Amino acid sequence: MSFLHFGFSDALDIILVALVFYFSYTFFKGSSALRIFIAFGIIYILYILSRTFSLHLFSSLLNRFIDVGVIAWIVVFQQEIRRFLIHLGSQNIWDKNAWKSILKWNTQEPVQRLQHTISIISDALIQLSNQKTGALIVLKRQTDLAEFEETGLVFQCTLSPLILETVFYKNAPFHDGALILHGMHCIAARCILPMTERTDLSEQTGTRHRAAAGITERTDAIALVVSEQNGDISAFLAGKRELFNSAVAISEFLKLHWK
User: Fold this and answer.
1) C-alpha distances in Å from residue 149, one per residue of 139, 145, 154, 155, 181
2) Minimum mean pLDDT range among 103-107, 215-219, 230-234
3) What is the per-residue pLDDT across 164-183, written as a single tens digit (0 to 9) for each?
4) What is the CATH class of 109-257?
5) How is 15-83 classified by DSSP, letter by letter?
6) What count of Cα atoms within 13 Å lies in the side-chain half-sphere of residue 200?
7) What is the pTM of this model?
8) Residue 34 and residue 153: Cα distance in Å, rounded?
9) Per-domain residue ranges for the chain?
């Protein structure tokens, strides 16, 4: 393709590539792999531009990266590919509505996954409260929390009631410190958070509550705290504290602020 000879096949080529990128974005939307997909997309665009402007050395370098990236793509996106194949296998391809369902398979899942995650967190907080087990959970929103994640044990797994129970078990090595979540993914445990410098807090305010206030003053994150003294459940946002006494109240708060 050249700029002087742009025909129907070139236009069709561009449209098909655009559709691939659109449906790929829809495929990975709502997953932790979205940023990696965007990075792969940028690399591919750079490769096309380098070919167009005859940057042979640069395009050769990017081509080698893309060759290796195909294998990395499968490894990185294995969970998303598995979910799509399961969804595809559950559809009757002869049904007139099947392909519409296949193409839109992931449009509602981010909302459903978020609601499921909120339900897990709310129920777990109530259980921890009843047991008077101390807990500090940080929910990422827009601000990057990498500097705080690196202070703890970095690991990645899907959130579950068992994970929360294990992390905050009183004798567990992860009990002290914060658990940081990105959506439904646990990113790091035993993280050290900055303490608030406020002087208007009660002397009885514990370390977890001061850390929760501190992280939410410096970032837009939400911090959830369970007191091991009295079992109180608190949420901190922008340094302000709100108390809860039911899973429903916690869920409503998170649905409103954690999007």
Assistant:
1) 12, 6, 7, 10, 10
2) 103-107
3) 888 998 877 777 899 999 88
4) alpha beta
5) HHHHHHHHHHHHHHTTSTTHHHHHHHHHHHHHHHHHHHTT-HHHHHHHHHHHHHHHHHHHHHTHHHHHH
6) 4
7) 0.63
8) 23
9) 8-103, 109-257
